[in-house]
Amino acid sequence: MVIIAGGLLLGLLLAIASFSRFVPSPSAPVVENSVTQLAQNLKSATQVPLALPSQVPAAQTYYSSIAEVQSDRYWVNLDVDRDCLGVANCNLGAVSGEVASLQTIDEQYGNLEGFSPPLKSTNLDQTVTLAQGIQGRFIPYVCGASCSTSKLVWGQDGYRYLVSLQARVVPDDQEVQALITMANSAIANRQP
Nearest to residue 149, comparing CAs of 104, 100, 94? Predict the structure, then answer.
């Protein structure tokens, strides 16, 4: 019985630790209406070339905060509230960059094959052409107990980048183009 309880406690602690890496520290900078202003904070902590969008399709003020930054990756939350910290009900989306994994984009970010969600984007998974002829993969949101984000993921020079928007931030018929615009501005701003 003690072994089972210890195993459950260890599992719970590991789950909390893995979640906490996406929650910014209270001292992390929060920037209003800009992702690119976080560049200096990210650049000093990661070796991944930054690709931060200058265009975010937010109909209101949004706040950017660094959720995670390590030598091989970074993750930035885009939120509607300064204190949101990436929580789904006040999160607009995210921006990330990482050393490309051996997994395909669909394996790493795709929706489960055969999953029949109660609500999903009217858009289908698709390959899109981005700035500089780069091929990206659009992966639409699905909703179960909560909704995932719609994502646009692309590879560039051995790195993988992502821009995402929460379900319904923009209407479904504008979703793919909104993410393409966001991704293209990130590609244009990419720092070597």
Answer: 94
